[in-house]
């Protein structure tokens, strides 16, 4: 019965992929399938609704943060924060090291924004536009871009995936971020080395476009525009709760918008809800987005995925699979089991959120240390999900930036991080066995 239930869910996902439908349809169908399974297992409708509610309740903080993130990204656009950072960063680009600089710029912007989607739609679009104009191989440039935007999506204090992992494992997000930087140091340097070498053979090079002239048509590009970014980084370093740090950044962005960008309050309020819309068509393609509405789809995905977790926990649907992951963790280390499980959950989930939740449920308990369990998820499910061609985690950033799907093959950081972590875990395990 369990295999049939999961197979039906996989079928729903496959149909959505083939018909190019939103993953929400598959998730909604999955909820019906799993509710039917619970009913067959003699659970009452009241009990099933409680399972769903208990599952969603675990992600209530994430849903609140999602909405705040929507407002934050909109106000950062309206205040000129993102345009200022992009224009300042582009000045650092040298055609001979363009691929490496694309990776580093996308790392920086995604760390500030905390979203791979938003970063790909801003700095990602700019980098891919420059790659085309400079005759840089778009596959390699796209791989560097995807690696970079996922860097921040993994370890930013305002990243929804980092917040989700923190909530699931009941760990402190700032301690998780320190562990993420520590475990990713060598993979990051290795990735930089690979992109530096690839850059020399990626293309002929050319002139770097003058983005200041373009963005100055709509923004003042005043240095005060960077204040909202400084606020959130400073408060994050001071370990202020993420929600409050983001709210403080939003307030500062509103002040900058009004007094530096001369933004009218009614227009600003509309922007916070529906997202930023530039008047210039060329700018709009790179900078439009954000707002509460932009996060509704992601919030719905989290709601449905969290509802699954409540049903799985109460019905024991994944119990037999969990036994296999527990046995696997004893053979190839807890991280190895989490990595293998993440590959499986990423293939069937089509989105990063469900991949993380399923991997957590299946591997829960195999690693007794909660901090290590959190970093295991961060170094596996978070970065493996974007490598699946039909997962929105990778497909959306590639599509929005104009990078080819083949760029998945050049997303070095997303391969190096889990492989390096797995290698280290195996070496440590063998050393313990030898003592």
Description:
With 435 residues, this protein is mainly alpha-helical. The protein folds into 2 domains: 51-57 and 298-434, no CATH class; 60-295, no CATH class. It contains 22 helices and no strands. The protein has helices at residues 2-18, 23-40, 45-57, 60-78, 81-90, 98-113, 116-133, 138-155, 160-169, 173-200, 211-215, 227-237, 242-259, 265-274, 281-287, 296-315, 319-349, 352-363, 370-378, 381-384, 392-401, 412-434. The longest helix is centred in the C-terminal third of the chain and has 31 residues, at 319-349. The relative contact order is 0.15. The mean pLDDT is 85.
Could you give a quick summary of the protein structure above?
With 435 residues, the chain is an all-alpha fold. It contains 22 helices and no strands.
- Biggest sheet, in brief? none
Q: What structural class should be given to the helix and strand makeup?
A: mainly alpha
Share of residues in strands: under 5%
Can you count the beta strands? 0
Total tally of structural domains: 2
Per DSSP, the total helix count is 22
Low-confidence stretches: none
Order of helices and strands, N to C? HHHHHHHHHHHHHHHHHHHHHH
The amount of helix comes to over 70%
Q: What Rg do the Cα atoms give?
A: 22 Å
Instruction: Estimate the global geometry from the Cα principal axes.
Output: globular
Mean pLDDT: 85
Question: For the terminal residues, how far apart are their CA atoms?
Answer: 44 Å
């Amino acid at each position: 019965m369990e295999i049939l239930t999961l197979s039906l869910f996989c079928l729903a996902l496959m149909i959505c992929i083939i018909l190019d439908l939103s993953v929400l349809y598959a998730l909604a169908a999955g909820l019906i399938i799993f509710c039917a399974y619970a009913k067959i297992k003699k659970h009452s409708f009241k009990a099933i609704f409680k399972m769903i509610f208990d599952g969603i309740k675990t992600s209530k903080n994430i849903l609140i943060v999602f909405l705040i993130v929507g407002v934050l990204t909109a106000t950062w656009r309206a205040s000129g924060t993102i345009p200022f950072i992009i224009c300042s960063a582009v000045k650092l680009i040298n055609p001979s090291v363009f691929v490496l600089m694309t990776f580093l710029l996308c790392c920086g912007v995604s760390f500030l924004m905390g979203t791979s989607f938003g970063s790909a739609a801003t700095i990602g679009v700019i980098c891919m536009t420059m790659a085309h104009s400079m005759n840089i191989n778009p596959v390699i440039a796209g791989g560097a871009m995807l690696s970079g935007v996922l860097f921040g999506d993994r370890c930013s204090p305002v990243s929804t995936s980092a917040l989700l992992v923190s909530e699931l494992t009941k760990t402190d997000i700032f301690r998780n971020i320190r562990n993420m930087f520590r475990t990713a140091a060598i993979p990051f340097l290795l990735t930089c080395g690979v992109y530096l070498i690839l850059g020399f053979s990626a293309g002929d090079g050319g002139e770097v476009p003058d983005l200041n002239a373009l963005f100055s048509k709509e923004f003042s590009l005043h240095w005060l525009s960077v204040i909202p970014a400084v606020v959130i980084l400073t408060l994050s370093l001071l370990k202020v709760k993420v929600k409050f740090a983001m709210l403080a950044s939003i307030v500062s962005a509103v002040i900058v918008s009004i007094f530096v960008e001369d933004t009218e309050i009614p227009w600003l309020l509309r922007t916070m809800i529906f997202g930023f819309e530039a008047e210039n068509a060329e700018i709009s393609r790179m900078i439009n987005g954000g707002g509460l509405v932009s996060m509704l789809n992601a919030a719905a995905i989290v709601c449905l995925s969290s509802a699954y977790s409540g049903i799985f926990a109460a019905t024991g649907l994944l119990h037999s699979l969990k036994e296999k992951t527990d046995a696997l963790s004893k053979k190839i280390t807890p991280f190895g089991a989490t990595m293998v499980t993440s590959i499986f959950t990423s293939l069937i989930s089509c989105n990063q959120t469900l991949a993380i939740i399923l991997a957590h449920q299946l591997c829960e308990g195999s690693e007794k240390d909660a901090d290590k369990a959190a970093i295991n998820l961060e170094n596996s499910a978070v970065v493996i999900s974007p490598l699946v061609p039909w997962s929105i985690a990778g497909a959306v950033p590639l599509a929005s930036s104009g990078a080819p799907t083949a760029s998945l093959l050049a997303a070095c950081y997303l391969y190096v991080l889990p492989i390096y972590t797995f290698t280290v875990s195996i070496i440590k395990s063998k050393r313990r066995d030898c003592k």
